Amino acid sequence: MASAISQRLMSTPLAWTTAALVFGILLHVDRVPFWVSSAALVCIGWRLAGELRLLPLPNRYTKLGVAFLLIAAIFARFQTLNGLAAGTALLVVMGAIKLLETHTRRDRYVTIGATTFLLLAACLDRQGLMRAPLYLVHAWLCCTALATVAQEGGGLTNRAAGALAARSLVLSLPLAVALFLFFPRVVGGFWLLPQGSAAVTGLTDRMNPGEIASLSESDEPAFRVSFEGEPPPPEERYWRGPVLHDFDGATWTGANRAYVPSPLEPVGPLYRHRVTLEPSSQRWWFALDTVLERPNRRAMLTTDHQLVGLQPVTRTLTYDVVSATRHISTGPIPRVAQRIDTRLPADRNPRSVQLARQMRAQVSSDAEFVDAVLAYFRTGGFEYTLTPPLLERDSVDDFLFRSKQGFCGHYASAFVTLMRAAGVPSRVVTGYLGGEWNPIREYFIVRQSDAHAWAEVWLDGKGWTRVDPTAAVAPERLRRGVFDLMPQSLSAPERFVRSTPWLVDMRQRWDALNYWWNERVVRFDFSAQLDLLRRLGIPDPNWHVLGWLFGSALVLWLAIVAWHVGRALRPPHMDRLARAYVKLCAKLAHAGAPRELHEGPHAYAAAVAARRPDLADAVRSLLHRYADLRYGLAGNGEASREAIAAFERDVAKLRTRRP
Amino acid sequence: MTAGREALGAALNALEQVILGKPDQIRLCLACLLARGHLLIEDVPGVGKTTLAHALAHVLGLAWQRVQFTSDLLPADIIGVSVFDRATQQFHFRKGPIFTQLLLADEVNRASPRTQSALLEAMEERQVSADGVSYRLPEPFFVVATQNPHEQLGTFALPESQLDRFLMRVTLGYPDASHERELLRTGERRDQLINISASLTPEGVLQLQQAVRGVHISDALLDYAQTLIARTRQRADLKLGLSPRAGQGLMRSAQAWAYIAGRDAVLPEDVQAVLPAIVAHRLERRDPVQSSSGPAIASELIRAVPVPP
Questions:
Q1: What tens digit of pLDDT does each residue of A364-422 get?
Q2: Which of A36, A296, A542, B290 is 20 to 30 A from A133 via CA?
Q3: What is the distance between the alpha carbons of residues B175 and B186, in angstroms, rounded to a whole number?
Q4: Secondary structure of residue A172 in the 3-state scheme
Q5: Could you tell me the CATH superfamily of domain B1-198?
Q6: CATH superfamily of B214-309
Q7: Spatial contact of A530 and A542, defined as CB atoms under 8 Å apart
Q8: Residues A543 and A487 reside in one and the same domain
C-alpha cells in the first residue's frame, strides 16, 4: 500500500513541481539566510507529508500566519523587500508556501512560475562557469514539471516528459543564441538591481600587521590581467590597491584627502592592459602600479593614484587601463601630502623614532637614508615569515628590536614609520605582487595569496618612489609567489597539487576556461556586440541593424521550429488513394460533415448520411469504394490503378452543394 | 461460402429472438466463437447470461454440457476420472463434462484456483491429460464462462494470465425499456428455445471458422491495429499493455466481425467494434481511484488513434 502511494506521488506532476522548486531553493542556499531556506524546506516537507497523508495540511489561517511571519522576518533582516538579496529570500519562502496550497493545475503553474523566477534571480546573482550546468539542470526541471502539468492525466511517462523538456530546450537554443548575440543591450542595464551586502573579500583600507598571526592562504583569484604587448618584468608587477596614510602606532588606515596632485611623467614603457576583477564588495579597481588615467566614468583616480569605483564591485568587472611602472614628478610635494604623510602618533614607538633620527643624521640626503634603512633591514637579522609572533602595543618597536620576524606588512609599516620619524614623506601602499602566468590564454592570474604591502617615499626631483622593504629581506619574493617561497605554509593537498605538473596544467586550463567565459559570455555587452557585427561585415552597426538582425534571426528560428513541428505532425507518406480520400474528406468537411480522426470509412459514411441525407447515397458509394481499395483485395494489383484513378475522378465530380 | 453465410444469418436471427435488444453482444459472442476463442460473460445475476449460453449451443447445433462451479469442485469433476472396472480388471477413464463441444462454466470464479487452472489449461491446449494419457477434446470446442463481478465472498478472482486465455469478455447489462416490457409480457425466455431449430451443425461451424480465417487483412489495417496495440503499451496510466496473444485475438475477432457483417476484408471499424470486448478483462488502470472499466479505456484508445487515410 505504501509503495502504491509513493508510486502515485512520484507519477504526479506535483513531484516534478516540488523537485524544480527544491532545486531552485538549493541554487540560493548559500546566499539567503539559513533560516529562510530551512523554513522553505520545512514547508515543502509539510506539503509532501500532507500528500502522503502523514500530516494534515495547514488551514487558511495557519498559511496566512506563516506567510506573514516569514515576510516580517525577511523585512526585519534586510530592512527592505526590494533588491536582489531580499527579493530572493522572499521568493524562496513564498514559493514554498505556495506549494503548501498547490492543489489544482493552475496552482502548479503558479509554483513553477515562481521557480523560474528563482532561476532568473540566480542568473542575476552569479554567472560563473561552474554554475551554468546547474542553471541548465534547473531549467530542464522546470520545463519537465511544466510538461507533466500540461499533460496531466494524458498518460505522459516521466521519461517522455523529460525528453520533451530536453527537446524543447534544444529547440529554443538557437533563439537563445540569437537573443544573446543580437538583442540590443541597454548600457548600464536595468538588471543592475541594488545588491545586498555580500561577503567582503580581499584587501581593505586597514592594516595591522601586529594583529595577524597567520596570513590567509586563500587561493581565490583576485583578478586576471592580460597585456597588450609585452608584460612588465617580474620586479615591476606591483598591482596597486588601497593607499594607507594614517598610523596610530599599531594600525594603518586609509584617508582620502583631495588636493592637487603633482603631475606624473612616465619614464620608460607604458603598459596597456585589461583587468577582469572578481567581485569583492569593495570599491578598489586593481591595476598595474601606477595608473595614468581612469578607464571610464564609473571609477575615479584619487590624488594618491588609487583607482576607486563609485560602487562596490559585486560582479565580475572588466576594464582597460594604461599604466607606467616608472615615473617622476619634478614639482614640489603638495602641502597637504607633506603634512599628512609625515605625521606619526606622539609617544608611540619611541625607540624607532630615535633610531631613525640617528640614521638620518649620519647621511646627507633622503635617498641615502632610504638606502641606509634598507641596508639595516638586510643586515639586521630580520626574517621573512608568514607566521610571525604577535606584537606589543608599540608594534614597530617590538618588531624592530625584539621579534625581527614578519611579512610584507611588518616591513612596510616599520619602513614608513622610520621614514616619517626622519621627516621624509612616505606612505604604505597595499595591493598584490606578481601573479601566475597562464600560458594557455596568455594572462596573469593574481590570487588573494599574492597580497602585498610596500612603501612609497617622496624624493625631491623624483616624486613618489616605490620602495619595497620586503625585497631587502626576501629578494626572491619579487620573482616568486609567497607559497613558492615558503611551501611549508601550504596545506598538504595544496602542496601536492603544486608539485604535480599535470594538475598544475589542468588548473591552468580550467582557469583559462573561466577567463574565456567571463570575457566572452558574461561580459558580452553593447561594445562587444558592435565588435562582433563589425567582424560580421557590418561596418557601421546601430540599433536598427541590431533590430533587423534580431528580427530575422527570430523569423529563421520560428521557421526551423515550425518545420520541425510540422514534420512531426505530417503523416510519413501519402499515396494517390490517400490524397484522394483526404480531398474527399475535406470536401465533406466543407459540406458540414467533417470526419472524426478515428472514424473509419464505413462509420464515416453513416455519419455523413446522418448529417447530409441528400449526399448519403453518393458518399456511401464513394466511401465503400475507398474502403475496398484501401483495405480489401481490390487495392492490389494492376487493376487497382484504374480503380484509384476512377475514384479520384468521382471524388472530383462530387457536388456537395445543397439542392 | 454463401450457404455458410445464410446459416449464420439464420443463427443470428434466432439468437436475437431469444435475447432481446442485445444485437451487438450476440454478434460479439458469435464472433468470439468463430474466431476460435473462449468467451467470458460477466454480469449481475438475472440478465440472461445462462440463457445466452444455452441459446448459442442450441442454435449452433452443438453438444453441450453445463458445470456449476463451486468452491469444492475438483479438477476431476470437470476432466473425468479413472475408475477400476471389475469385469476387465483394468482402470478405465470415465470422461468428465469437459468432453463436449460447448462447455458452459457457470460462475467460474467460485471454483478454487486449482480447478480453475485445470479448466483453463484444457482451454488453451484443447486436450486433457489424465494418468499419462492425452485425450483430445472434440472439435469445435468452446468454453463459455460466466462470472458475477459483484460477489466477492468466497470467490477466487481469475488471475491476469488466465483471463488472457479468454478471447473476449462481454457484458450484457440491463435491457432497455421496450425490451424489458416484452420480457415481462412473454415470461421465461428459455422456453422459447424449444421453438427454435438449430441453424448450424458442428461441421458448419468448423467451415465458418475456416472461412473467417480467410478474411483479408490489408497492410493499411495492420498499421492501424499495430498503432492501437502500441498505444496500450505506451500509456503510463495502464498497468500492462496488450500481449501479442491479445493482438492475435484482436485480429481474429475483427476478421470474424467482418465476416458476420458480410465483408471479405477487415476495416478499422471491425477492429474498433471488437476492441472493447478484447481489452475489457486485459487492461487495467494503475490508479485504483480512477477505476473506469475496460470499455471506457477502449473508447479512449479508439479516440486517441486516428485512422490514417
A1: 888 899 999 999 988 888 888 877 888 877 888 888 888 888 888 888 999 999 999 99
A2: A36
A3: 14
A4: helix
A5: P-loop containing nucleotide triphosphate hydrolases (3.40.50.300)
A6: Magnesium chelatase subunit I, C-Terminal domain (1.10.8.80)
A7: no
A8: no
pLDDT per position as a tens digit, A597-628? 888 888 888 888 888 888 888 888 888 888 88
- Determine phi and psi for A271, rounding to 5 degrees: -120, 115
Facing B236 at nearest CB: one of A155, A578, A597: A155
- Is a pLDDT exceeding 80 seen at residue A480? no
Q: Where are the alpha helices (DSSP H) in A183-262?
A: none
Tell whether A191 is covered by a domain. Answer: no
DSSP state of A447: E
Confidence band (pLDDT; 50, 70, 90) for A323? Answer: very high
Regarding whether A450 and A485 lie in a shared domain, the answer is yes
> Which residue in A156, A574, A600 is closest to B307 by CB distance?
A600
Q: Which residue of A has its CA nearest to B215?
A: A632
pLDDT bracket for residue A212 (50, 70, 90): low
User: At residue A578, what is the residue type?
Assistant: A
Identify whether A445 is part of a domain: yes
Closest CA to A417 of A389, A477, A362, A376: A376
Measure the CA–CA gap between A360 and A370, rounded to whole angstroms. 9
CA dist., res. A148 & res. A14, Å (int):
9
- Categorize the per-residue pLDDT at A134 as very low, low, confident or very high, splitting at 50, 70 and 90: very high
Give the number of domains in chain A: 4
3-state class (DSSP) for residue A631: helix
Give the pLDDT band of residue A22 (cuts 50, 70, 90): very high
| Domain co-membership, A580 together with A561 | no
pLDDT single digits (tens) B254-282: 999 999 988 888 999 999 999 988 888 88
Q: Which residues contact A541 (CB under 8 A, 6 or more apart)?
A: A529, A530, A533, A534
Residue A8 to residue B287, Cβ atoms within 8 A: yes
Alpha helices in B91-218 (DSSP H): 113-125, 160-163, 177-186, 202-213
| A·B CB contacts under 8 A | 70
- Please indicate whether, in this complex, the C-beta atoms of B309 and A581 are within 8 angstroms of each other: yes
The cell numbers describing A648, all together, are: 479520384
Looking at per-residue confidence, does A527 or A479 come out higher?
A: A527
What ipTM describes this predicted complex? 0.85
Buried b (16+ CB within 10 A) or exposed e, A505-526: eebbeebbebbebbbeebbeeb
- Which runs of consecutive H residues, i.e. helices, occur in B126-218? 160-163, 177-186, 202-213
CA dist., res. A63 & res. A101, Å (int): 8
Inter-chain touch B286–A11, beta carbons under 8 Å = yes
Look at residues A434, A446, A380 and name the one whose alpha carbon lies nearest to residue A411.
A380
pLDDT in tens, A149-196: 887 766 677 888 899 899 889 988 888 888 888 777 765 444 444 444
Residues A236 and A275 occupy one common structural domain: yes
Could you read off the pLDDT of B142-171 as tens digits, one per residue?
888 888 876 667 778 887 777 888 899 888
The torsion angle over the Cα atoms of residues A81, A85, A89 and A94, rounded to 10 degrees, is 50
The one-letter amino acid code at A371 reads: D
Q: Helix H segments across A363-447?
A: 366-379, 395-398, 408-421
Residues pairing with A328 in the sheet: A265
C-alpha–C-alpha distance, residues B137 and B135, integer Å = 6
For residue A628, the chain B residue with the least C-alpha distance is B265
Chain centre to alpha carbon of residue B167: 6
Give A124's pLDDT tier (boundaries 50, 70, 90).
confident
Delimit the CATH 3.40.50.300 region(s) of chain B.
1-198
- Inspect the interface and report whether the beta carbons of A631 and B267 lie closer than 8 Å: yes
**Residue positions counted in chain A:** 659
Q: Could you tell me which chain B residue has the CA closest to the CA of A11? A: B236
